[in-house]
Fold:
Amino acid sequence: MSRTFRRRSVLLGAAAATAATAAAPASAASSLAERPPRRPAGPLVIGHRGAAGWRPEHTADAYVYAVRSGADWIEPDLVPTKDHVLVVRHENEISTTTDVARRPEFTDRRTTKTVDGRAVTGWFTEDFTLRELRTLHTVERLPQLRNRNTVFDGRGRVMTFQEVVDLARRLSRESGRRITVFPETKHPTYFRSVGLPLEEELIRVIRRNRLTARECVVQSFEPSSLRRVADARLGLPLWQALGTSGGPYGHPATYEEMATPDGLREIAGYADWIGPDKSSLVPPRTLLADAHAAGLKVGAYTFRAENQYLPAAYRRGGAPGDFGDAFAEYAFHYERGVDAVVTDFPDIAAQARDALRP
Structure:
């Protein structure tokens, strides 16, 4: 048996074991609640849109899978409906994550909009009421790469942020661990411009549910959005996400400038975390040490198992969708002292973290 085949067998075997856990009956889930709460030893594992590597993203299945396979936080991306309800979708354009393009009753909703300076054509959440969105079915966003997930197409629906909060609390009770929700405000400047500001509704949901600093961390790529949340004095940690090029829409500084020691000190004035792309933390870059020196925690994004998303040294096999040596990439970042990882495969991230424990 080849080394590559053995490694892939281990990965797939681990995934199968996790799938069995995620599908466990209620009696098994209730037994988890009897365990004493525990804090993770090592970096936090954040389920990116749930467990997007194994289930269509932002579905209840994806969030449940993420938590039952080891995620400490779950991440919902927030966009509004026409009637100003926050729902969870990666983007407000939903043709790749729902079956809206195959629904004849919504053909006339297809349009082109300019979102953050970029022309986008499709169907947009802000043109649908929540009741209308409820009639749609969710699908896998990357069917060519993650064909395994298409078996779940049509089985989920668009969730509200409130439903994710409710689910996180239920999963906390089941698992005996505090599961944190990690909402991201998507395109906040654009939504303010069309009369559907995200922050006001987000703040209302947080207050209505009395979410604490252990239950909710708010993130955004736009500092203006985080400052609006900070002004509400909710007592929640804030996370400044950093892109790899350009800068936040409507912000004078580039991401590169924000990642300098001076820029990091400015971020520390309103946020507790930065979320850079994982490639920004590889030597000779000193971002990790500089952020820690500024008093910021660092959560890197986005970790995935497929070759397409791995550095060349960790790729295995010939196809972009083949799994590479994801464990080695996690080990590299864990050993350097990253505080959290945002991942499509929380099960692999959690196992890699466990492997480093004494």
In short: The two ends are 30 Å apart (CA to CA). The CA atoms of residues 282 and 333 lie 8 Å apart.
